[in-house]
Amino acid sequence: xxxxxxxxxxxxxAALDLSLIGKARLQGLLxxxxxxxxxxxxxxxxxxxxxxYGGGAGMVMKPEPWALALEDVLERGAAAPGPAAxxxxxxPGERPVLVVPSPAGExxxxxxxxxLAEREHLVFACGRYEGIDERVVDWARERFEVRPMSLGDYVxxxxxxxxxxxxxxxxxxxxGVIGNPESLVEESHSDGLLExxxxxxxxxxxxxxxxxxxxxxxxxxxxxxxxxxxxxRTAARRPDLVAALDPAALDRADRAVLAEAGWTVAGDRVLRxxxxxxxxxxx
Length: 283
Ligand code: JE8
Hints:
Its EC number is 2.1.1.228. By secondary structure, the chain is of the alpha/beta class. The chain is built from nine helices and eleven strands.
């Protein structure tokens, strides 16, 4: 996989050299390059922004440096041989994906991460100020598959932090990047529930014991306990995820835990039980 990032703060992306993604680069699983948008300016002051048409606060990123940067990235992507299929570069017919972080984008989820992990060439365009002149997105649709993408419903100052999160989420799904692929298997089996809590040594720490079932060696009981905690946590913290559960994936014990947390199965839906339904504490 090839990943290009364009930003006026390329140093911001230095964190990608560390840990997982850095290792994947050294192993040749992932080719990452970060470009400084200012390299593609042509004026003495290396200007990347200007005042907004129609008025309003702040500045908008000028279109031409973006077009020059993205053309450069396209050119180098077409020349580069892809590691999966040596000599292939971007497969014929598959356009590179241009991810444009924006609070107005589609929400970036694990499903999107899985989809993008299958692509040969991803390009990330990090905006700043009030964003990028919209014509860049229209222009880019002729050359890329464009995906305006939001990290979530809160306001950041620019696209860089969103790109750090997205590249990490995508990169760890690329085959070979995660040393122990079993951890990915467990994630895909998580069935839309929050994770269970984890513990390590010592068994007693500052008067706090590890839940005794985890020391029992009884794998069946441990699996059931973990599943119960997943369900209780999800009910307490993410009612949206509970409402999206498929009853066909819930056994009798699951349903009992959900009932205790105030949920009930009705046909092919999981619904909130009565308004006076209990909502117990959660670990
Ligand atoms: C950004 C962003 C993601 C998320 C992404 C890109 C470029 C118009 N607004 C621009 C006004 C407030 C400041 C904004 C700064 N900005 C934010 C994001 C994002 N992905 N989940 N929240 N915010 C840009 C400029």
